[in-house]
Design brief:
The structure is a homodimer of 458-residue chains.
Chain A lengths: L1 H14 L2 E13 L7 E10 L2 E7 H7 E16 L1 E6 L15 H16 L2 H16 L3 E8 L2 H11 L2 E8 L10 H14 L6 E7 L7 H13 L4 E5 L3 H11 L3 H7 L7 E5 L5 H10 L2 E4 L1 H6 L7 H7 L3 E3 L13 H16 L7 H8 L1 H6 L17 E5 L11 H8 L5 E6 L2 E5 L2 E2 L4 H20 L1
Parallel strand pairs in A: 1-4, 5-6, 6-7, 7-8, 9-10, 10-11, 11-12
Antiparallel strand pairs in A: 1-2, 2-3, 4-13, 13-14, 14-15, 15-16
Chain lengths: 458, 458
């Protein structure tokens, strides 16, 4: 009798079921919405580029008639991970000079390697390699600062990834700009070209306070505000940066930047390792976001950022792996989530600090807020872009499962990511990246590796 | 002409080529021998349980005629990773109570969960799950302290894994022993039963100085020495442990233990977070090994162990993931290697401290020395046990490759492990574990998860 009933209800429901492009179902949906809903036997309905509904499979299966179904009964669905700071094309310099002091690493390896090797083609293949790796570890949005950023944008779109991308503005001649003015001109072209792009948010990206003049930084702020674009910059990454600015100007980098109006608009600073309480108050006042990079800060001996204080003050803190050329050396956001939690537990000596839920927030909704994109991404809610991942719960490291947040943060790996949907498109299915030619990218990466090796041997 | 020549040489060589069980070839062999040889286009020849030769593929292919070949032209061969501290069967408590203070976690979750759930069957399935996860992330030897340790040994042998295993001796009634005396009696049976086992090194494992009397610790030392077994114990894990011992005895745990002769024999202490210079000198004098557990020490806010000082003093330091019930929450040695390097770079503020080579040593040859097993395992050398892994170099995170140690430590993942050989047997081939029934183990782990959840709800 119940069977007949449910069949009747099913038939009835189909009659007025709404057509959608996708119905994706899983054992759990980790929404990261305002109520932090975790829906068991959940589903996400997608129409076009956006989520139309998030609920139980039972409910959505009746309300929607999908063109395509993705059924993952032994996985969870989570918002796509948001990388708030990296240098994607540096994938081709992965581990080229590890375990060295920052200045030695930069001046004797990275800057020469870049001077001798950078080209649009290098950046295109480096970004493709990075996208391949990011997609296979669950990243759907990445925030990048490098050179030939228009090529980075083309490669990101080709990969089907969302990017917040800024052409580096730096006070010495680089591959695609002789002067900061040239770089700002390139940036404006870039802002115009990718204005209103569904995947690319063009940004303005001065490198740092110690590699740019105040005039360049003011011009960068003005340019960002002219196009309501985010301004991205490395700030207070090392003690040396803070000490040098203090010696030169008598204040911290943040106070020096505040004095020239640098934070008056959309801003995301990377690192913020050496922020003091006044700096934090200034960033909070301006709604500036912070990209926390635990792997990079540890590997380069930069220090441990005051993340707990930043979060307590209400600053939106995201996570980033930084570049793979010596800071990390990969793009795996699962490791940054895990390490962000563990690093704060160590420095505060309190195992309750930065719990799993907060660590996952940093990689999703808080990262979206830090980028000013939280109306579009960062959680699974009707109206938002359909950017999400499925993560397998059927592997040895995933069982048993007592708490879905704990499992996601401390036990699951990038390699457990099974599928990736971005902007309503299935980009990865069963760990196959549909948008990129993996064997060709890996072969090209090796060719470039040989070229870089030869260039440094000279 | 050269072709004919080489064919002739090949034919000639086969005539007096030595028969062996296995010839495993790869792009690189990372030997971790005294000269830290890295052999490009290398090979390892295996006869029975042992390595008979390590060299170039060209050389060994001429000298040996193998019954079986494993060809991995796009991978590296490295010694199997050695886990020097864990509690394998706690896999069934993975993440049962995270982000809590140690005492709350132990007294309100772990001890009650153990009291209500531990049984030989629980330990068997928990250890099987742990072995499955350890094998798939490249661990060939694990060092364990738990209950029903004879069952742990049976499960390890069934999985084909090498284990240094000790029945926990602790000052309150536990599942398999009412008193420390009962636990020591069980231990002696265990030492006799697994004496001369090819895979199992039975050990004596008092839990800690704060959970055992001096008499028990003296008896444990005497028992270990009677069978020349390693003595394993948690020492100076937390500041509280050090403060309590200091308050009670006026000295550090290491000094208190030295005073009762605890270190007079094979000893491996876990953690050693709060060791001072005198403690380090005492451990060095006795040749005591230390199991460093960076993930656990960070997650539980125990602190950062003085690893650089220990290494400088010549102490053999290995790595361990600790238990997955709240300390980690997995068994991935690749993450411990990466984190060991990054943690020391952070605490010393020197990016040159604990370079990649040293981090990999800790997970291989130094770990073997810490266990007193370096004549048998820890490097790829003729005469040693054939315990090694192949790690794929063909994945996006593995290219380009500039330095094989850097790649292994900072870029490669447990999920890149492709094959595992232990004691001359192929245990994992192409990520398939040949010795264990993965689907059955995962199903059982979930059943036990439900049982544990119900037991804690009561």
């Amino acid at each position: 009798m119940r069977r007949i009933c449910s069949l009747f209800l099913f038939a009835a429901s189909l009659a007025n079921a709404e057509a959608v492009d996708w119905l994706v179902t899983a054992r759990y949906v980790v929404s990261m919405d305002a109520n932090r809903r975790v829906i068991e036997h959940g589903a996400v309905a997608v129409e076009g580029q956006r989520i139309v509904a998030v609920g139980t499979e039972a409910d959505l299966a009746h309300r929607y008639q999908p063109k395509q179904r993705l059924s993952r009964p032994d996985a969870l669905i989570a918002p796509g991970l948001i990388n708030t700071h990296t240098h994607a094309a540096m994938s081709l310099f992965r581990g080229v000079a590890d375990d060295r002091r920052l200045q030695d690493w930069l001046e004797n390896y990275i800057f020469p390697a870049e001077a001798k090797n950078l080209s649009p083609d290098f950046v295109r293949w480096g970004t493709r390699l990075a996208c391949l790796e990011m997609l296979l570890s669950g990243t759907t949005t990445f925030t990048d600062g490098y050179y030939f950023e228009d090529v980075v944008a083309e490669a990101a779109k080709e990969a089907g990834m969302r990017g917040v991308l800024g052409e580096t503005v730096i006070g010495f001649p680089v591959a695609d700009a002789k002067t900061p003015a040239d770089a700002l001109a390139l940036t404006e072209k870039f802002l115009i070209r990718f204005h209103d792009d569904p995947l690319i948010t063009p940004a303005v990206a001065p490198h740092a306070i110690y590699t740019n003049t105040d005039d360049t930084l003011r011009a960068a702020r003005a340019l960002a505000n002219k196009y309501n674009a985010p301004l991205l910059m490395h700030v207070s990454e090392t003690k040396k940066e803070n000490d040098d600015v203090l010696a030169k100007r008598g204040v911290s980098p943040v106070k020096a930047l505040d004095a020239i109006g640098f934070f008056n608009g959309r801003t995301l600073i990377a690192h913020g390792v050496w922020l003091d309480d006044t700096d934090i108050a200034i960033l909070k006042k301006h709604g500036t976001g912070v990209a926390h990079c635990p792997s990079s800060n540890m590997k380069l001996s930069s220090g441990a950022a005051p993340v707990i204080k930043m979060l307590a003050s209400g600053i939106n803190v995201g996570l980033g792996p930084d570049g793979p050329a010596g800071s990390n050396n990969d793009f795996d956001m699962f490791e940054e989530i895990d390490l962000a939690a563990k690093l704060q537990k160590l420095v505060t000596m309190d195992p309750q600090s930065l719990p799993a839920t907060v660590a996952l927030e940093m990689a999703t909704i808080s990262g979206a807020r830090a980028l000013g994109l939280d109306k579009e991404i960062g959680s699974l809610e009707p109206g938002k872009r359909a950017d999400f991942i499925t993560v397998s719960l059927g592997t040895p490291n995933a069982v048993p499962l007592y708490d879905v947040y704990s499992q996601m943060v401390y036990a699951l790996k990038g390699s457990n990511v099974n599928d990736v949907m971005i902007d309503g498109k299935a980009v990865v299915v069963n760990r196959r990246v549909l948008t990129l030619n993996a064997p060709q990218i890996i072969a090209k990466a090796r060719e470039y590796g040989e070229q870089v090796r030869r260039s440094l041997a000279k």
